[in-house]
Automatic annotation (TrEMBL):
Residues 423-560 form the GGDEF domain. Gene3D superfamilies: 3.30.70.270, EAL domain (3.20.20.450). One of its GO terms (molecular function) is cyclic-guanylate-specific phosphodiesterase activity. Residues 1-238 form the EAL domain. This is EAL domain-containing protein. It holds the Pfam family GGDEF. InterPro entries: CBS_dom_sf (IPR046342), Cyclic-di-GMP_PDE-like (IPR050706), EAL_dom (IPR001633), EAL_sf (IPR035919), GGDEF_dom (IPR000160), Nucleotide_cyclase (IPR029787), Rev_trsase/Diguanyl_cyclase (IPR043128). It comes from Saccharothrix syringae (Nocardiopsis syringae). The lineage of its organism: Bacteria, Bacillati, Actinomycetota, Actinomycetes, Pseudonocardiales.
Length: 567
């Protein structure tokens, strides 16, 4: 086996943040001279040297990466069977890191299939030990391989990598989109990040962005190369995915709930040095990495102690006598106390931190830390400002100009979120009876006034019931989503009001569908089930309100009387 390993070379493929367009990590991919890495591992398995060969490949990946001074987190691949092997099997990996001057915190261990052949208890135990030593953990092939969902919940990996089979199916199959949404929902609870691998087409990229997946790799973005360019960014044209057909296909994907971006959506890898580093060491890093905006000086536990801003530092050390004065002395003398923000913070909280900073530091990177104040990366203020601005523009464009209420997309996200969460909830469809007759008789301006009044009533009612979300989907049609304890008082409050146009009273019709956990699968199904209920409400006299349930023909009439027969 050692002779075969001599012929193995490595290529490096970057992972991109789809919000910032920048590279956040690099994966090392083994490239044997003959065949592929799977053939090599199969031969090692047959010879009884699988674990040792697998670890040796990981060690070689670390050494090859060191030759290129990547300065980014490195993803190395290890089989689940290897991780679950004898205690100490990964000891050579620790040695390789010491040899090149890197730490476990610089490495993401990508655990690959087959998982089912690895003893479950030992696998989980060894993964926890790796994490305790500082490694980050990724589970590869999720959705296409064999990792059990219970393993995702038990391990709570730092990274979940979507199998390329899932990515291929996203633009054409709603089931794959639902799978990704479910994984996103799980990750919100475990703190994991989803990475899409094998992105090959603009349609796939458009679907991923619509679903809220923010990390991706694939040949569409950048192929694997022997000498990777870590400063490459996704072009603006590619980021916008300007293929109309691709966007059209991707727009059929359900939307994730997006109350606002988190700081981790804009995370860049931190360039770190020990807090004892000299100015000369910092200068060397900045000279070789022109894209780096600053250096974080950390203690032995990876906790930020100081931050060195690129511009202020270079101004100090490159001026007259600057190098002589500072080069051999601690860089902390030219550093600032770090501006820290927690990984769970929202982007608006970050902007609040910036707003209260000294004027000369408003553009400094902020250091993102975990619950134990360990450095996870940095965020750049410009990225966050741009992201928040884009979100506000997107939200404003989605508001109805008459009522300033969100449209159907917002309601669809809320319904899908509640479906995935297994909640008991209700969806209501409200409109004005004979609204066309109103416009035809008193004019469309008076009709607009009526719609505004109804929009205000819904907005005021929602303000009193925080669990209610309302939307204006066009014309005189409104939607509401609420928990079962709020739908009755909210709806009654709206229907109890008197509505009139030019002195003439108008009536409303409301159809409500009560959805138990598992009774509906999507917003589209809810829409279909509401249609006959709405017809029932419209058949009643006066302001009407009917209530139904999926799978049942029974309809409760809460308001409205039968129309009188005409003889």
């Amino acid at each position: 086996m050692p002779a075969l390993l001599d012929d193995v070379r490595f290529a490096f493929q970057p992972l991109f943040n789809l919000h910032t367009g920048g590279v956040v990590a690099v994966e090392a991919l083994a490239r044997p001279h003959d065949g592929n890495v799977h053939d090599l591992l199969r031969m090692a398995f047959q010879a009884g040297y699988l674990a040792d060969t697998d670890v040796a490949l990981a060690c070689r990946a670390v050494r090859h990466a060191a030759d290129h001074q990547l300065g980014l987190p490195l993803h190395v691949n290890v089989l689940a069977m290897t991780v679950a092997d004898r205690p100490g099997v990964l000891a050579p990996l620790y040695g390789a890191l010491r040899e090149v001057g890197r730490t476990p915190a610089d490495v993401v261990v990508e655990v690959g299939a087959p998982y089912s052949r690895a003893p479950r208890r030992r696998l989980v135990e060894h993964l926890r030990r790796l994490r305790g030593d500082g490694f980050r953990i990724a589970l590869d092939g999720v959705g296409g391989g064999d990792p059990a969902l219970s393993l995702l919940a038990e391990v709570q990996p730092d990274v979940i990598k979507l199998d390329r089979e899932v990515v291929v199916g996203l633009p054409v199959d709603q089931a794959w989109c639902a799978l990704v949404q479910a994984l996103q929902h799980l990750c919100e609870h475990t703190g994991s990040q989803v990475v899409a691998e094998g992105v090959e087409t603009e349609a796939q990229l458009a679907a991923l962005r619509r679903l809220g997946v923010r990390l991706a790799q694939g040949n569409l973005l950048a192929g694997a190369q022997r000498r990777p360019r870590v400063d490459v960014t996704i072009s603006a044209v590619l980021s916008e995915v300007n293929d109309p057909e691709a966007v059209s296909r991707a727009m059929t994907a359900p939307l994730r709930r997006r109350p606002g971006p988190r700081v981790t959506d804009f995370l860049h890898p931190a360039t770190t040095l020990p807090d004892s580093a000299t100015s000369e060491e910092v200068l060397e890093v900045l000279s070789h990495q022109p894209a780096v905006t600053g250096v974080v000086l950390v203690d032995a536990d990876n906790r930020p102690r100081w931050t060195v801003d690129r511009n202020r530092f270079l101004l100090a050390v490159t001026g007259p006598f600057g190098h002589a004065l500072h080069a051999r002395r601690e860089a902390a003398r030219l550093a600032d106390e770090p501006k820290l923000i927690g990984a769970e913070a929202g982007a608006l909280e970050l902007l609040d931190v910036v707003a209260h900073a000294n004027r000369e530091r408003t553009n400094d990177d902020l250091v993102v830390v975990d619950g134990e104040d360990r450095c996870l990366g940095v965020v750049r203020v410009a990225d966050v400002v741009r992201g928040v601005a884009e979100l506000k523009v997107e939200q404003a464009a989605a508001l109805n100009p008459l009522t300033r209420l969100p449209g159907s997309d917002s309601v669809a996200r809320e319904v899908d979120r509640r479906v995935l969460g297994g909640e008991l909830f209700a969806v209501g469809w409200l409109d004005v009876d004979a609204f066309k007759r109103v416009n035809d008789s008193v004019g469309f301006a008076a009709g607009d006034d009526l719609i505004r009044a109804l929009g205000r009533a819904l907005t005021e009612g929602a303000a009193a019931h925080p669990g209610v979300q309302v939307g204006h989907v066009g014309g005189d049609d409104f939607l509401l989503v609420a928990g079962l304890d709020e739908v009755v008082p909210f709806s009654a409050g709206v229907l109890d009001r008197q509505y009139a146009v030019e002195g003439a009273a108008v009536t409303l019709s409301l159809a409500t569908l009560v959805c138990a956990a598992g009774s509906v699968g999507s917003y589209r199904e809810v829409s279909r089930l509401l249609a006959p209920l709405k017809g029932h409400a419209k058949s009643l006299r006066g302001t009407s309100w009917v209530l139904g349930r999926p799978g049942s023909d029974h309809v409760d009439v809460l308001r409205g009387g039968p129309h009188l027969a005409v003889g």
